[in-house]
Amino acid sequence: xxRADLPEKFLSMDFIQTFSDIGSQWRxxxxxxxxxxxxxLNLVVAPVVYAAADGILERRxxxxxxxxxxxxxxxxxxxxxxxxxxxxx
Length: 89
Prior knowledge:
Elements: H1 6-26, H2 30-52, H3 59-84
Helix pairs in contact: 2-3
């Protein structure tokens, strides 16, 4: 039987091409890509919040809490930068 080396080809070619495409698109389309990355990060945060709530909250509420936490963190970082580097703004 012939062994298929699909994982090696997939990892070496597609990921490199994908990351270079994302890098080139980042300069032109920052907001949609930032929203996409935020939603992907929420995929990690939502199950943690759902597990911490012990099944009391609905999944929609958990997603809302995750997005609210991300927005809050972004505002805190923005305000931190504005307070300590006001000459940039």
